[in-house]
Amino acid sequence: MRISYALTAALAASLAVTATATAAQDTKPKKTACQTDPHFRDFDFWLGKWDVTSRKSGKAAGTNVIKAIEGGCAVLENWHGKRGSTGKSVNYYNPITKKWRQVWVAAGAYSLDIEGGLNDQGSMVMSGTIWYYKNGSSAPFRGTWTPEKDGSVRQFFEQYDADKKQWNPWFDGIYKKAGKG
Prior knowledge:
This protein has two helices and ten strands. The protein has helices at 2-26, 33-36, and strands spanning 48-54, 60-69, 74-81, 86-94, 99-106, 110-118, 124-132, 137-147, 153-161, 166-177. The chain has a ten-stranded antiparallel beta barrel. A hairpin with a 5-residue loop joins strand 8 (137-147) and strand 9. The radius of gyration is 25 Å and the shape is globular.
């Protein structure tokens, strides 16, 4: 009887140790798709605090703070224009559609919903629609963000003119890290 009791006690102790070790392994956080899929890093070149100028005139257009949020699953943009305009966008990669998407809202003026991804030259290219709240109109819209060799980023937006059947520049700006002339 003592042998059975000792054997049972040893077996119970062994099972308890195994259960504890298994529970400890189960509590380790598992990596998310945002941490394992490299496409979630495609837009990292845009992260940072930026001074933005018009590419054409060289004049200051505003400042932009772009940061990763939600454990690297999304990118949040906070725009402050030189003339008082503001806007925010959330950008994220969808591993199901294999596309990046930007949803932008500008303080009561307009919104964007565009999607796309990196092209062969390393630029982020997204297209979709812009909606103007004041007059209730919309138009096809596209944006291209290109990382430059000097660490700056060119942001080039275009809107389609259906009457003229052509794409027209909407904004062409250069992003330079804040505080770096």
